[in-house]
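Extended Data, record 3-keto-5-aminohexanoate cleavage protein
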Amino acid sequence: MNFTDGSLFPENQQKLVITAAPYGPEWMPADFPEDIAVSMEAQIQKAVDCYNAGATVLHAHVRELDGKGSKRLSKFNELLAGIRARVPDLILQVGGSISFAPENEGDVAKWLSDDTRHMLAELKPAPDQVTIAINSNQMNVVEQMCAADIAGTSLADPDNYRAYREMTIPAGPEWVEEHIRRLSNNKIQTHFQLANIAQLETVERMMRRNVCNVPLIVTWVAIGGGFEAPNVYNLANFVRACPDGSVLTLETSMLNVLPLNIMAIAMGLHVRCGIEDNIWTQRRDRKMGSVEQIEQLVRLSREFGRDVANGKEAREIYKIGTFYKDADETLAMNGFAPNRKPGQKGFTQLARAT
């Protein structure tokens, strides 16, 4: 991404797209009973409340009535249908991990099988997006958490802590390419959840090979534990690596969330918040629910002079419903340099989108 003169002026920036992640599958309801929705009606209402507060993308997981994260696609169908009926402009983004919570005491938190995750392309009603990880990777979500982050929660239990510490992401190249193909065939946008530049480069190579003809809609997930740390050096390098046609949202965890989101607002990038990422105020004097976190970002963005996108504007920014016909168009529209032609010498010039 290029930051030319005036790039930090709010009048030259896209309106802010706020992604809400209000379901927090790593927590148990007792960890934050005031904010963790359990019944289906409460989970649907949580989406409505997030939208009314200013979020235009909903990162969806779903719970069973016992409070545990659901691994049943029928529950996702029920949630998606209920939200779609109440807030049709909300971008529905299903978490590709489904529920990574451990099923039984002592189990390791893990993603479901390749075949089960492929079935996310068959959800009805179809979500707007499904998130996808690139390249199998460690996902130790507790590595950069401190004792104060988990005090008094279920993550303070040693067995539960270990379950999340040992979690890995299965995302090999054959599965990834097939998953993108299935999502695209069903007009579901692939949303890339990327841990580092190496994963971004893998996405670019897929686009160059004509197996990933989609907009480059990315979340940089800076949570440590196999992912990058949320510091300004890593952020600057990742932003520099993203082409100008991409759309970039920042994600991190716990008390890193607000500082990183402030950077995103100032830089013209997009933000994510919610109890899946953090449950505390910056002083840790109380827990802070998803709606309050959204309202905080709306207020801060307005202080920066940057307007918040409504649902229809967010769909345009996120290019919902857009797919490309071939590698040449994909590279041009995402802002990558074109593929080298046979016999071509020297550097290839940046393709111009039309």
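Summary. The two ends are 18 Å apart (CA to CA).
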